[in-house]
């Protein structure tokens, strides 16, 4: 017996590579190690980095007990959505509830919390073996309870969902820029299928805490590594989206890499912001590559 | 690949015979933990070409792929074959190795959450989309849903979808610290339930469009949906809002009503909160039918296999349709009145469900639901 599953809905009609209704990118917000917004991007990130391997991004200062414990990547996700709403004059109540989908993407932003937990647990073990002073041992005893929930990539999306009251369709993809193209495509499908009225695609990338690891895996990522948080709001609109696997980068992908540096999952959203800043109101093609695979989404 | 055995047949026979996959963990030290038991796979012989990776998660996945390929043929060009996998931990055990003194670059690369999925794609020669879904313990369900979406959008002709996670000290220490692990046996929906135990597994399915081509099919994925709680990082929403949204949306997409549902595979972790909330959601969404639909949880037998759990449960639903038997919930002896449903207790139930509902929840407020239909026998 073949172990297989089928999609009955797929048999309802011929395969349709484009959603039945269109979408529009209503707003995009970008925070990077270069500053707030795409106007802060240098003309040439590699030159501006001046040999620095990582361009770090600030830890946002957000009020509330929950945020005191949250990791930096969680705060960056919240800050990116907050920036999008403020810059586009969208009220928080507008996105609250089950009519807004949230799709979160990251290639690396769980690394810091995973590393923190591993290190804290190593200290805890050392303390139990008598290797730490009593005071130091006491400070690490609660490390598991404190750090572990944040080691899951879903914690970042969870904090954003809690902060903005998002209870609609939900997805988390792990990977670099190609995964963000997948996420944008998922958003267009959710909108086209009437599963939501708007969709947030959010990406966060942090590198500083794991810089030594990336230095060892230089073949995987380019330089400079630029920390970033970026968010796009998609709504129903006139443009049809086509999802494919192009062999070459789009003009926007090349431009985003040149201006921002290596931002992994944030790159396609930065590309969208660059397109909007350049006045592109019609056709936009964004592409993204990760681990040898390139995906593309083309609004026409 | 499950603690019940190294292939699909062992998984199914273990479930219907009431085998217990829980044991003392032997692969790494657990002396310093409150709980040292779990659903550990004792006999995993790394395939010759996977020994070099040293990554448990990848080895589990590739072993599952070997079983899949013995049962199904991938009949599509490499560019049209996609891989979509759910995971809660990715290659995190490799991160521990990378951070240790003398850690190697390959460990750093393997520490990324999507490394096992790319290793599987490489093994299969798949050159289509390779997606890793990170919705924690609901990820296996979301992965199957995205796989269906890729087929509908004609972005692939074949999708290898599923989930995986390996047991390691990282996750055992984390859940131990959270006091989520029980020192007793796992008892989903039982009045004495006191927590979960973790397990490890990898589960894969081969998905195609329903075009009548190919060999015999196990069943259909009729609908899927996911939703966030927006409530708490590490606990389910007390009212189960996200799960309710996901269940209703999945039934809607499948174009079925509660009257059509013949069986529910519950997430059923055995934690006091999860099981009560899940039972309440099922009663709300299925209405009066809830008391007449058989419900089970396989986590009493396997432990909570995290990213693999929902994919295993989807497979179990389709096997139940094929075999005409619903496995019972191991560990459930005294159903909790607060979880009042038609639980399958004590022994398997002879019934042939056509339409099944499978529910999943995960860290960060992730919820997912699948509606499946067994192939006609």
Keywords:
heterodimer; A: about 300 residues; alpha/beta; Peroxisomal Thiolase, Chain A, domain 1; 6-stranded mixed β-sheet; 3-stranded antiparallel β-sheet; 13 helices; globular; B: about 375 residues; 4-stranded mixed β-sheet; 11 helices; about 30% helix
Radius of gyration of chain B: 19 Å
Determine the structural class of chain A based on helices, strands and strand pairing.
alpha/beta
Instruction: Give the CATH level 1 class of chain B.
Output: Alpha Beta
Q: What low-confidence regions of chain A span 5 or more consecutive residues with pLDDT below 50? A: 7-19, 136-141
**Cα shape of chain B:** globular
Number of helices of chain B: 11
Mean pLDDT of chain A: 87
Total discrete domains of chain A: 1
Instruction: State the shape of chain A.
Output: globular
Helical coverage of chain B, percent range: 25-40%
Instruction: Name the assembly state.
Output: heterodimer
Strand percentage of chain A lies at: 15-25%
CATH structural architecture of chain B: 3-Layer(aba) Sandwich
Number of strands of chain A: 12
C-alpha end-to-end distance of chain A: 44 Å
Distance between the termini of chain B: 26 Å
Known CATH architecture of chain A? 3-Layer(aba) Sandwich
Helix-strand category of chain B: alpha/beta
Number of domains of chain B: 1
Query: Can you tell me the residue ranges of chain B where pLDDT is under 50 for at least 5 consecutive residues?
Result: none
CATH topology of chain A: Peroxisomal Thiolase, Chain A, domain 1
């Amino acid at each position: 017996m073949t172990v297989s599953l089928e999609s009955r809905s797929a048999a309802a009609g011929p395969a349709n590579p484009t959603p039945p209704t269109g979408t529009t990118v209503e707003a995009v917000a970008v925070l990077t190690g270069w500053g707030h917004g795409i106007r802060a991007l240098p003309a040439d990130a590699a030159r501006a980095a001046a040999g620095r391997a990582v361009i770090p991004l600030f830890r946002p200062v957000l009020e509330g007990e929950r945020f005191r414990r949250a990791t930096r990547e969680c705060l960056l996700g919240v800050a990116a959505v907050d920036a999008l709403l403020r810059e586009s004059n969208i009220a928080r109540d507008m996105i609250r509830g089950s009519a807004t989908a949230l799709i979160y993407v990251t290639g690396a932003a769980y690394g810091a919390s995973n590393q923190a937990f591993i290190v804290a647990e190593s200290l805890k073990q050392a303390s139990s073996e008598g290797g730490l002073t009593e005071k130091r041992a006491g400070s690490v005893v609660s490390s598991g309870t404190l750090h572990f929930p944040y080691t899951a990539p879903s914690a970042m999306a969870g904090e954003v969902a809690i902060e903005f009251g998002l209870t609609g369709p939900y997805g988390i993809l792990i990977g670099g820029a190609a995964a963000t193209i997948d996420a944008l495509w998922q958003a267009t499908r959710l909108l086209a299928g009437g599963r939501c009225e708007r969709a947030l695609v959010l990406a966060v990338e942090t590198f500083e805490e794991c810089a030594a690891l990336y230095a060892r895996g230089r073949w995987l990522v380019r330089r400079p590594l630029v920390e970033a948080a970026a968010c796009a709001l998609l709504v129903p609109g006139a443009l049809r989206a086509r999802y494919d696997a192009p062999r070459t980068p789009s003009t926007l992908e090349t431009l985003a890499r040149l201006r921002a540096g290596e931002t992994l999952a944030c790159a396609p959203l930065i590309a969208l912001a660059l397109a909007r800043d350049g006045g592109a109101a019609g056709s936009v093609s964004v592409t993204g590559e990760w681990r040898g695979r390139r995906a593309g989404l083309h609004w026409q | 690949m499950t603690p019940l055995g190294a292939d699909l047949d062992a998984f199914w026979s273990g479930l219907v015979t009431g085998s217990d996959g829980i044991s003392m963990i032997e692969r790494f030290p657990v002396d310093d933990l409150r709980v040292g038991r779990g659903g550990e796979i004792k006999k995993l012989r790394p395939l010759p070409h996977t020994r070099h990776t040293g990554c448990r998660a990848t080895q589990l996945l590739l072993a599952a792929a070997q079983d899949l390929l013995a049962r199904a043929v991938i009949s599509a060009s490499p560019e049209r074959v996609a891989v979509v996998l759910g995971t809660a931990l990715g290659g995190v055990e490799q991160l521990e190795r990378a951070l240790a003194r003398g850690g190697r670059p390959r460990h750093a690369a393997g520490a990324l959450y999507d490394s096992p999925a790319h290793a599987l794609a490489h093994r299969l020669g798949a050159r289509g989309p390779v997606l890793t879904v990170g919705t924690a313990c609901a990820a296996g369900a979301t992965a199957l849903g995205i796989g269906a979406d890729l087929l509908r959008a004609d972005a692939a002709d074949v999708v290898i979808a599923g989930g995986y996670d390996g047991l390691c000290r990282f996750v055992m220490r984390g859940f131990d610290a959270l006091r989520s692990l029980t020192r007793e046996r796992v008892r989903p929906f039982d009045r004495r339930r006191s927590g979960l135990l973790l397990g490890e597994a990898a589960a894969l399915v081969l998905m195609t469009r329903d075009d009548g081509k190919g060999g015999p099919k196990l069943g259909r994925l009729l609908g899927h949906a996911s939703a966030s709680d927006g409530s708490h990082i590490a606990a389910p929403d007390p009212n189960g809002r996200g799960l309710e949204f996901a269940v209703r949306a999945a039934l809607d997409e499948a174009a079925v009503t509660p009257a059509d549902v013949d069986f529910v595979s519950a997430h059923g972790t055995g934690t006091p909160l999860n099981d009560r909330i899940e039972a309440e959601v099922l009663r709300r969404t299925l209405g009066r039918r809830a008391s007449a639909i058989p419900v089970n949880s396989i986590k009493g037998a396997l432990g909570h296999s995290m990213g693999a759990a929902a994919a295993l449960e989807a497979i179990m639903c389709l096997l139940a349709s094929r075999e005409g038997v619903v496995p019972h919930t191991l560990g459930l002896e005294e159903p909790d009145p607060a979880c009042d449903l038609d639980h399958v207790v004590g022994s398997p139930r002879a019934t042939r469900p056509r339409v099944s509902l499978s529910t999943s929840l995960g860290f960060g407020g992730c919820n997912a639901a699948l509606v499946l239909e067994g192939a006609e026998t």
